[in-house]
Amino acid sequence: MTTPLHTLRAGVIGTGFIAPVHIEALKRLGVQVTAVCGSTGAARECAAQWGIPEVYGDYDYRGLLASPSVDVVHITSPNKAHVEQALAALAAGKHVVCEKPLGMTSEETSAVVAAVKKGGAKGPVFAVNYMCRFFPAVLQMRAMIARGDLGQIIHVQGHFFQDWLLQETDFNWRVLSSEGGKLRAVGDIGTHWMDAVSFILGARATSVFAHLETFHKTRRRPQGSVQTFAKVDPESMVSYKVDTEDFGSVLMKFGKAKHGYVSGVHANASISQVAAGWKCDAMIGIYGTKGSVQWNFQDPNEIRVGRRDEPNQILQRGTAGFSEDVAGFTDYPGGHPEGFSDAHKMHYRAVYEHIVSGKKTAGLFATAADGHHEVELCEAILKSSQTQSWVRVETAGARGGAA
């Protein structure tokens, strides 16, 4: 008999935009959220809103980790805190779901990979929250490619566009390299696109050529902290120099996949957080010798299939051609939309089932090694933009194949 997920108890570090997304998804799965950590006021408010019994104010994440009522830790804090908190959680014997990026540098994230490896087969489960893997459409495209439905893959193209940092008065801690890392648009949303493509292809990026730009060389910010997507009075703002990119173009070459339909595939992506009118527009197009598939984050329940000598198709989730391959990752019938929050739910379900099964289920979620690779990939992209040359992605990427 399978151990029910509600026997596991979760603690959440952080109270910003993404924390309630984690909490809501966990509650939909029946998982008990027993503890929350953050600034004292925000943690108390979050706990009161969601009925969370244990509150750890003043950012006392070590207190949360010491709680016997927490089995799995969800790290939703700013990027610069991820590695420190992840290492502490692993040392405390807790399973971990960490927001992306895994860390600020590959030197940092390699320590997390080592800590997970040290735990061995009986050690804690560690997942990085690249939740785009768990949109049914992404899983469907992965199955189609692995089966050879599209033939040999020729190239991939797409984009991830947002506009929430379009104005010089738009501010968030991610704009500051000291808080979020040296890459902002590519590191924040571009890595979602790159991880999803890597997952679909079954291969990692091995080399990159990139061009990054900062349109707003100077921005204005509030005198204090601000929540993601919050509006602030411009009159209360001060100027500062921007040291992260607003947009960029990235070319990638991928390694060889085990199924044989992907080898040396070329990909190009445009990433922007200053694309007026586009709130969260992520598009992936994959083109092979037998056909192509296209999918958009803002229209998540459809896949467009292209053929040269046959009529094109629009496949809808829950209908023929878009159902059997994703049966375990969709809960509602066709015509009943599933989207962003459902992908989070499916991701955490996969992680928690992996935990209760003793790691016997398929590990489709992004691992610490995958998170480390994405940071390496970002470092290669930054170097490429600075040198205007192709740069090889080190260690994990150089081995090819997706973990």
Polypeptide structure, described:
The longest helix has 20 residues, at 368-387. The chain folds into 2 domains: 5-131, NAD(P)-binding Rossmann-like Domain (Rossmann fold, 3-Layer(aba) Sandwich); 135-332 and 367-399, Dihydrodipicolinate Reductase, domain 2 (2-Layer Sandwich). It starts with 8 loop residues before the first strand and ends in an 11-residue tail after the last strand. It has 403 residues and is α/β, with parallel strands linked by helices. It has helices at 19-28, 40-50, 61-65, 82-91, 106-119, 136-147, 177-180, 185-201, 340-356, 368-387; strands at 9-13, 32-37, 54-56, 72-75, 95-98, 126-128, 153-161, 205-213, 218-222, 237-241, 247-254, 266-272, 281-288, 292-296, 299-306, 313-316, 391-392. The chain is built from 10 helices and 17 strands.
What's the gist of this structure?
This protein is α/β, with parallel strands linked by helices.
- Portion of residues within helices: 25-40%
The strands making up the biggest β-sheet line up spatially as 16-15-14-13-7-12-11-8-17
Determine the N-to-C terminus distance: 29 Å
Average of the residue pLDDT scores:
94
Number of helices: 10
What's the number of structural domains? 2
Give the oligomeric state of the chains in this entry, treating copies of one chain as homo and distinct chains as hetero.
single chain
CATH topology of the largest domain: Dihydrodipicolinate Reductase, domain 2
